[in-house]
Amino acid sequence: MKKYFLIGFALIIVSGIADASARVLPRMIISVENTDDHFQSVAVKSFADELKEKLAGRIDVQFFSNARLFRDKDVVQALAQEKLEMAVPGTWNVTQFEPNVGVFLLSVFYGRPAEANYRVLESAVGKSINRELENHLPIKVLGRWLDLGHAHIFGINKKISKH
Predict the structure, then answer these.
(1) Highest-confidence segment of 19-23, 85-89, 106-110
(2) Cβ count within 10 A of residue 76
(3) How far apart are the first and last CA of the chain?
(4) Structure pTM?
(5) Which H or E element spans position 31?
(6) Distance from C-alpha of 100 to C-alpha of 129, rounded to nearest angstrom
(7) CA-CA 20 to 30 A from 157: which of 44, 56, 99, 142?
(8) How many CA atoms within 13 Å lie on the side-chain side of 44?
(9) Is the CA virtual torsion 99, 139, 37, 111 positive or negative?
(10) Does the pLDDT at position 43 exceed 60?
(11) pLDDT of 120-136, one tens digit each?
């Protein structure tokens, strides 16, 4: 009798473990380097929150800011190793893998309105850059690029004191 009880108890434990593992949701870990109040983090967190709401019970969406998981320079490798599912690195961190992304850092864009960048991003050139990223890296470019505003100011032999 004890033997049957132990076998029955073991089967209940095993079936309980199987039921628990069946409830494990696929994950979607999202990593950004910027602080919680940075525009990029706010936008990506909003996206993550909406995913979490719409996919509740189907995907476990987790958002990490402040480089708590990875610095932007490391996210491409982390994506390749399946340590996370989404990242939004700065373009300068991606140029080592796809140099054409650097087109947006060329001086021809300095002082020009953001629409100049948008026209290139939405053109055949931008689509080609996205395709090259997807061909060379284990990634999929989702939607439009996030515009974080002007980030670089350079000068030679002249002090920059105002914009």
Answers:
(1) 85-89
(2) 22
(3) 86
(4) 0.71
(5) strand 27-31
(6) 6
(7) 99
(8) 29
(9) positive
(10) yes
(11) 999 999 999 999 999 98
Q: Which residue, among 50, 54, 55, has the nearest Cα to 26 in the 3D structure?
A: 55
Mind giving me the DSSP string for 103-140? Answer: GGGSGGGTTS-HHHHHHHHHSHHHHHHHHHHHHHSS--
Q: b/e string for 13-52 if b means 16 or more Cβ within 10 A?
A: eeeeeeeeeeeeeeebbbbbbbeeeeebbeebbebbeebe
Q: How far apart are CA 50 and CA 56, in angstroms?
A: 10
User: Which tens digit of pLDDT belongs to each residue from 150-161?
Assistant: 665 566 787 777
d(CA 90, CA 151): 10
Q: How far apart are CA 95 and CA 90, in angstroms?
A: 9
State how far the Cα of 131 lies from the Cα of 137, in Å rounded to an integer. 10
Alpha helical stretches, state H, the chain: 2-22, 39-54, 75-80, 91-94, 114-122, 124-136
> 């089967």: which residue's tokens?
11
Task: Judge contact between 97 and 155, C-beta under 8 A.
Answer: no
DSSP code, position 157: S
